[in-house]
């Protein structure tokens, strides 16, 4: 019968047999899959593993610290962080089209990942033990889905860490290949990973870059990050995380509306709340959140986040609306 301890022991033995004394690299996204995959591999081969985390500046509040501090403290994984925030902002300057943003983010991500990878490869070669393996957090549903079918991947050009180009110089290590998401979470808990990472709801690879309708700028990212943090905090406080699949918070940067705050007229931007309930993200319904929770979120965002004078609720199911706005 299924138990997370057995699965870990089984995978550890399998990884040790596959990897031997070889060196291994793994990209961390801040999400649960790559975090659990890397933790199992670390348990199996220790410091033969090095993880790469690209901070593209499109992360949510505290996510980098959760990886750099909490995750590293709980696993002992060796981590290299690439600070690519400027690089991404420069590449995204002047771009509003969603597909173009996705392409640019995907391209820059690969660029910065490969630059970090190159340095590690050189270092490993100097040690006489080349890097031969790449960890991927592929889950069972990913395996099934890539065998055909019409996923959302056909509608939007998906980017995520697992979507790195198949680097032929590396052999893949995929310890989660037979598992479902809830099983991955159970294993993450068994391995003692931080709850913020283990319980994290889906978050797209292009991050906040596709939650700003309009051009992505440092200023807009800061506004959205603050609004998103408030929404997440209040949803968690109200005990609603279990009911919600995810709740994108979107900044309509190209839309302005008139408001009144204090005794002055404002001309600010709306924030959209997009809480959805879903089994697998292929279809979704908008979550009927309690009015008092919506009210709390709205009040806090308009009071605490500069340039926001309106909060609106997205009441569209999928289809016809996708979960993300871009
Ligand atoms: P949509 O917006 O297509 O999203 O209804 C379905 C699910 O996929 C997530 N999503 C992404 N995940 N890279 C990802 O890893 C992406 O480029 C991407 N785009 C959307 C979205 O958050 C939802 O869970």
From TrEMBL:
Coiled coil: none annotated. Pathway: Purine metabolism; GMP biosynthesis; GMP from XMP (L-Gln route): step 1/1. It is an enzyme of class 6 (ligase). GO terms for molecular function: ATP binding; GMP synthase activity. ATP binds at residues 29-35. The keyword Ligase applies. Its EC number is 6.3.5.2. GO terms for cellular component: cytosol. Keywords: ATP-binding, Glutamine amidotransferase, GMP biosynthesis, Ligase, Nucleotide-binding, Purine biosynthesis. It catalyses: XMP + L-glutamine + ATP + H2O = GMP + L-glutamate + AMP + diphosphate + 2 H(+). Residues 2-200 form the GMPS ATP-PPase domain. Homodimer. Catalyzes the synthesis of GMP from XMP. This is GMP synthase [glutamine-hydrolyzing]. It comes from Microbacterium allomyrinae. The gene is guaA. The chain holds residues 195 to 520 of 520 of the full protein.
């Amino acid at each position: 019968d299924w138990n997370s301890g057995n699965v870990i022991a089984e995978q550890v033995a399998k990884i040790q047999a596959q990897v031997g004394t070889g060196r291994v690299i793994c990209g961390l996204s801040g999400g649960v899959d790559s975090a659990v995959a890397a933790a199992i591999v670390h348990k199996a081969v220790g410091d033969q593993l090095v993880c790469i985390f690209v901070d593209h500046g499109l992360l949510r509040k505290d996510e980098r610290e959760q990886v750099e501090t909490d995750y590293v403290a709980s696993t002992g994984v060796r981590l290299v962080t690439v600070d690519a925030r400027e690089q991404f902002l420069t590449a995204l300057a002047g771009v509003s089209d969603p597909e173009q943003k996705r392409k640019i983010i995907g391209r820059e991500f690969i660029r910065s990942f490969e630059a970090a990878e190159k340095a590690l490869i050189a270092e490993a070669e100097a040690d006489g033990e080349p890097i031969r393996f790449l960890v991927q957090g592929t889950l069972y549903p990913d395996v099934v889905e890539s065998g055909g079918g019409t996923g959302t991947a056909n509608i939007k050009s998906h980017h995520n860490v697992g979507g790195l180009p198949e680097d032929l110089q590396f052999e893949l290590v995929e310890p989660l290949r037979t598992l479902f998401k809830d099983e991955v979470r159970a294993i993450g808990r068994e391995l003692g990973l931080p709850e913020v990472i283990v319980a994290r709801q889906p978050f797209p690879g292009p991050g906040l870059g596709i939650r700003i309708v309009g051009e992505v700028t440092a200023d807009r990212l800061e506004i959205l990050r603050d609004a998103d943090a408030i929404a997440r905090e209040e949803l968690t406080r109200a005990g609603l995380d279990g009911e919600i699949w995810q709740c994108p918070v979107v900044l309509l940067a190209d839309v302005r509306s008139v408001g009144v705050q204090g005794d002055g007229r404002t001309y600010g931007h709306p924030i959209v709340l997009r809480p959805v309930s879903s089994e697998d993200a292929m279809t979704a319904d908008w979550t009927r959140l309690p009015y008092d929770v919506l009210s709390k979120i709205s009040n806090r965002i308009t009071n605490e986040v500069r340039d926001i004078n309106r909060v609106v609720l997205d009441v569209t199911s999928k289809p016809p609306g996708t979960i993300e706005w871009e």
